Amino acid sequence: MNKTYLLPNSTIGIIGGGQLGRMMALSAKAMGYRVIVLDPTIDSPCGQVCDEQIIAEYDDVEALRELAVKADVVTYEFENVDNGALAKIEDMVKVPQGSELLSITQDRILEKAYLESVNINIAPYAVVVDKDDILEQSKSIGYPAVLKTARGGYDGKGQIVLRSVEDVDAASELLKYGSCVLEAFIPFEKEVSVIVARNASGQIETFPVSENVHQNNILHTSVVPANLDRDIHEEARAIAVKLAEVLQLEGVLAVEMFVTTSGALYVNELAPRPHNSGHYTIEACNISQFTQHIRAIVGLPLLKPELVRPAVMINILGQHVAGVNEQMGDYSRWYVHYYGKKEAKVDRKMGHITILANDPNAVLIDLEETKIWE
Ligand code: AMP
What we know:
The protein is an alpha+beta fold. It has 3 domains: about 80 residues, Rossmann fold (3-Layer(aba) Sandwich), CATH 3.40.50; about 60 residues, 2-Layer Sandwich (Dna Ligase, domain 1), CATH 3.30.1490.20; about 180 residues, D-amino Acid Aminotransferase, Chain A, domain 1. It is about 30% helix and about 25% strand. Strands 9, 10, 11, 12, 13, 14, 15, 16 and 17 form a 9-stranded antiparallel β-sheet that branches. A 4-stranded parallel β-sheet has the order 3-2-1-4, sandwiched between helices. Strands 5-8-6-7 form a 4-stranded antiparallel β-sheet, sandwiched between helices. β11 and β12 form a beta hairpin. The mean pLDDT is about 95. The site of adenosine monophosphate has 15 residues, from β14.
C-alpha cells in the first residue's frame, strides 16, 4: 500500500540543536523515527538525544545538502536559519515548514506586512531607516512606542521602548543593525499565545490558550488555561486557525498576542515551530506540541489537543539553576526539564518546570515562596 506518511525508522532532519530540537527529537524517537541534527555546537542539547549530528553552521550549504540526502523530511527549530540556504535543499527533500514561512517570520517588516495583508489586527507601525523617520513616524504612532530591529531579535533583544522624543537619539542606535519597525506600545492587560498545528491534508488543531508573563522580555511563566472570557479564548484560537490556513502551514506555529482591557487582540509575533509557551503541553495535554509537530511533518493525522489538567510552566534560566537544584527534592509535583546545556549563563534558558494543579494561582504563590525567581 502506498502510504502518504513516513514510516518509523525513516529519518527526520532537524536544523538547530537547541532545546526545541531536543524536545522534537525526543518525541520523534518515541515514535520510532531516526533523527539527525545540524548544529555548529558539538554535544548540543538536541545532539545529545538524536542518532547523528552534523556539526556545521546553519548557512553551510554543503552540510544542509548532506542533511537533505540523509533525511526523509527536514524541519527547523528556530527562525534564524538562512532561508536562501534552505531554499537550495527544498528540491532535494521535503521541508514541510518551507523557506517562505521562514522568510516571513524572520523579518518583522515582512511579517507585519503579511499580517496586515490577511487582515490580522496588529499594533500600528512604520518601517524606519533613520532618525528622521523615527521623528516623523512617531508623530502619528505616538509615545510610548517600541523600536525593534527587523531581523535577528529574540527574547526582547534588539528592541527599545521610547517614552518620549528625548529617547529617540539613544534608540536610533538600533538602526545600525539595519531597518527597524517603530510600533505603538500596546497597553496590554495580558499576553497570550496559541499553538496551532496543520498537516498537509489541511487538518488544523489548536492547543489551549496560554497566558504568558515575561520578565526582562524573556518568558517567565505560562499559565493554562489563560484567565480570559470564553469569547476571547475562541477569538484567539480563531486567529491562529486563520493563520494556519492562509499560510498553508505544515507543522506547528506559535501566535503571540496582546489582550487589552477592552478585550481587543493584537498579534505581536509568529514563530513557525514549537514555542516556549507551549512546553506545558508535555504534561498538561493529551499530546504535546512536539509530538503534534512531528505528526504534522511526517503526514500523520493530528490529535485533537485536550487539556488534561490546568498547568503552570516556569522557565529555569542560568541564574535559577542553583536554587532549583537545591530545592527540587522538596517538590514532588515539579516536572523538571533540563536541556543538557553545560554553562548556566545569566538569562540563558537551561530548563523549565511544569506543575499541574487545579488552582494555578496557588502554584504561583508557592513558586514565589521558594525565592528562586526573585
Ligand atoms: P517581541 O520580541 O516582539 O516578542 O517582544 C518581547 C516583549 O516585549 C513582548 O512579549 C512584550 O512584553 C513586549 N512588547 C513588544 N512589543 C510591544 C508593544 N508594541 N507594546 C507593548 N509591549 C510590547
